[in-house]
Amino acid sequence: MALERLTIQVEESRNKFSKEIPVLYNPNKLTIVKSGWKASANGLVPKDDPASLTVELFFDTSAPDKDNTASSIFQKATDLLTTPSTQAIDVRIYTLPIYNLSFINARFNLGRPPLCRLVWGGKPNIRHFNGSVLFKGVLQQVIQTFTHFTAEGMPVRATLNCTFLEWEEPEQQQKKTNPVDDPIRIIKQGETLSSIAQEEYGDSSLWRIIANANRLNNPRTLEVGSFLTVPPLPSQGGR
Question: Does residue 82 surpass a pLDDT of 60?
Answer without folding.
Answer: no
